[in-house]
Amino acid sequence: RASSRGAHNVCRLLSRRAHGFYARDAGVAHRINLGLLRKMICQESTKFKNVWTTHSASPIAYERGRIYLDNYQCCISSVAREPRILYQKPKCSKSEKIEDALLLECPLGEMLPSPSDYKPSLIVLTVQNWLLRLSADSGEILEKIYLAGSCCKFRYLSWDTPQEVMVVKSAQNKLPAAARQVSIQQSVLFYLAVFQVLPLSFIGMLEINKKIFGNSVTDVAVSNGILIVMYSTGLVRLYNFQAICKQFMEQPFDLGHEFNWNGQVGVVGKYPFGLPCNIKITDTPPLLFEASSLENAFQIGGYPWHYIITPNKKKHKGVFHICSLKDNALAKNGIQDMQCCSLEPDWIYFHPDMSGRIIHVGPNLIKVLKLKEVKNNTDQVEVAEDFTIVANRENCVNNAVTVTASGRVVKKRFNLLDDDPEQETFKIVDYEDELDLLSTVAVTEIGADGKAHLDFRCNDHGILLKSIPLLESWDVTYSHEVYFDKDLVLHIEQKPNRRFSCYVYQMVCDTAKDDERSSHEKAERVFCKKGGRLFEY
């Protein structure tokens, strides 16, 4: 009896282990650690301190604990309390300029051909159509692929399937003015090159041709196995991208192998031949779905599947329709309109936490919506409010009539906009998936300075758990990005005349003595140079 019980326990353990329930599994330990980190972040004594700041004359990018400056020629670790330069390359020429980049991380549970494949790397696209894989920690070139000659200019990198399938897209092909004057026709609008990553392998390259897809195509994208084609009329059409590759693939090619293609002999991915255009779409593929939306704004998500559009008329800007993907039926309460009067429009999107919920953000209100079955009608879905977050405007006075100290009555000729800088206004809403926290940035202009604070909220109910003031002034006319990455907060600001600033905040558990020192912190900040770059502490 004891041995049968032991065998039963072993089988049960193996079954639970296969489903990810093994208590000593690294994933379980990681989740426990993240739970502890979340508690530490949200406790009252924890502060986020601006540990250092730097400035740049070129755009600043952030990816997973690494800050990239000087067109990816300089990489700084954001993990250390002081700036630690991981690598600094010589300034590149205009012909070596990087157009776009993606961070590539090692897939789990796969055998890879090279030891360097197990470490993070950066895929970059240069202005001369080179695709490079760089070590994320040293900047060393690990792989080089030449895409194409002067027939097209590749400009954009994106994921079809994150960390699995990558798409390189060209800029839209446009004829020179002289060619247009003599009525020369340009039928190829875009080129798409598709790669499997780690190990990096070539799937195929295809043309988006107006003879197949129509004259009014303005843009294309590939996401989750779907080819998305957008038109100047607001129309959005979806096609099965995997089926297109399978149906119209003329011949598969491997990187580094010799090929003979249309009279050309060369090596796949090597200069000067590049990649063959081996997927030739000769007929219009079967249409999966189409919708018409203002400015081609179209999103799919939720459970059951729904999509969000704005009716294709300018008067409907700011009105969102939530419809069933199955039969295009408008959900009950599916028209969402905040009716806000503001310079910047409200925005809506499916929650990135895969809960199927919807986030609708206005100047002073964040609504988290959910899809649920209508009572007594399982075939219909309704949009219901899960919770709302309201901006703190208690001190805001917007009376149409005021009385001066002398008793004179003054009537206002206009009302404040909903996103007037003097009122607290939501600017950024994001989700930290590892800590399951919703983050919001709200800004209020006080005198000449704008003051911003980053709030962490419970993702299930929207309850405020932590508020972090950002010390630097926030000008609402500038472009801003805020990243919340576990114990790190990063604020990147773009000022006029291509001036960029990066403010790094890190979690610290302050004592009472530290709190007393923090009021003098600004006056005591110092400057130092590292790798020829100026940092402010």
TrEMBL record:
Chain segments annotated as transmembrane: 188-208, 220-239
Lineage top rank: taxon: Eukaryota
Pfam families found in the cross-reference section: DCAF17 (PF15802)
Species this protein is from: Rynchops niger
PANTHER family: DDB1- AND CUL4-ASSOCIATED FACTOR 17
GO CC annotation, single: Cul4-RING E3 ubiquitin ligase complex
Protein name: DCA17 factor
Gene Ontology biological-process annotations: protein ubiquitination
InterPro entries in the record: DCAF17
Record's keyword terms, sorted: Membrane, Transmembrane, Transmembrane helix
